[in-house]
Description:
Blueprint: E1 7-12, E2 20-24, E3 31-34, E4 40-44, E5 56-60, E6 63-67
Antiparallel strand pairs: 1-2, 2-3, 3-4, 5-6
Amino acid sequence: MERINQTSGIAESEQHEGLLWMVNRTGDAAINGVDAQGRWRVTLAPSTSAPVNFTDIAVRDGYIYLLDVRDETGVRVHR
């Protein structure tokens, strides 16, 4: 069973009734799907090699959108 330590953002799935998408803010890029009772159902792993700190999530027209605006560890190169 997966553990969601600190969630940031929640969005209702358009394609799977009763499924809620959550972003886990523990340093990984996991997107977790849980049911209405909070039981873990699925994890999606976006393909990225960059450090991530997703802060919000949205679902629209079959796509999952992720917001990443922080660099708490100071490891990103800003241009």
